[in-house]
Amino acid sequence: MGCWSEQEQVGEQGHWQAKKLNADASQWEVLLDGEKVGEVKWALVGEHNMHNGLMAIAAARHVGVLPADAANALGSFINARRRLELRGEANGVTVYDDFAHHPTAILATLQALRGKVGGTARILAVLEPRSNTMKMGVCKDDLAPSLGRADEVFLLQPQHIPWQVAEVAEACVQPAHWSADVDTLAEMVVKTAHPGDHILVMSNGGFGGIHQKLLDKLAQKSGRG
Prior knowledge:
Layout: E1 16-20, E2 27-32, E3 35-41, H1 47-62, H2 67-74, E4 85-90, E5 93-98, H3 103-117, E6 123-127, H4 132-136, H5 140-146, E7 152-156, H6 165-171, E8 176-179, H7 182-192, E9 198-202, H8 210-224
Parallel strand pairs: 5-9, 6-7, 6-9, 7-8
Antiparallel strand pairs: 1-2, 2-3, 4-5
């Protein structure tokens, strides 16, 4: 005796597709068997969120909700905290926070921010390898490629881990820096940042309060300027 689940297939060969209407994927069409059945305009950005939304619409249809109604409902969806959350702006520099803590999430988050700010804006990626998997070094060889969409990279060296973030910095194709001290790292980021830049802080922890440190130091830099 078996318990069988129905499948909803997405992609070019599936029943469901999502078609971006703008670069950051905050607006997209819902296609079912090649026909438009809804349109989403929401606060989230990134293709990974678009695909998640598409599957939510497919699941809702499975229990009787029309795709058009589900698409409209997503327009009022409030995103979880720490998902490209804007923490503030100082001296013309925006500071974002994201929970990304493994290479796949880092890559997706940087792709989403790049789509949001455009190809010419500078993104400064600031990463704390804090999860147990990251500390063990399981993902360290994938970190540099995942950071490829950032213009400059800043890495915190955690204590008592069996590898050095300097290895990742050396593997990055763009300028990359590291420090074992949060305050020093914040100073390095602020020294590099210019008006119009976007700082993306990534960690699954508090990162020593670096978000506010960055905003405070950026404001001080503006005052000195």
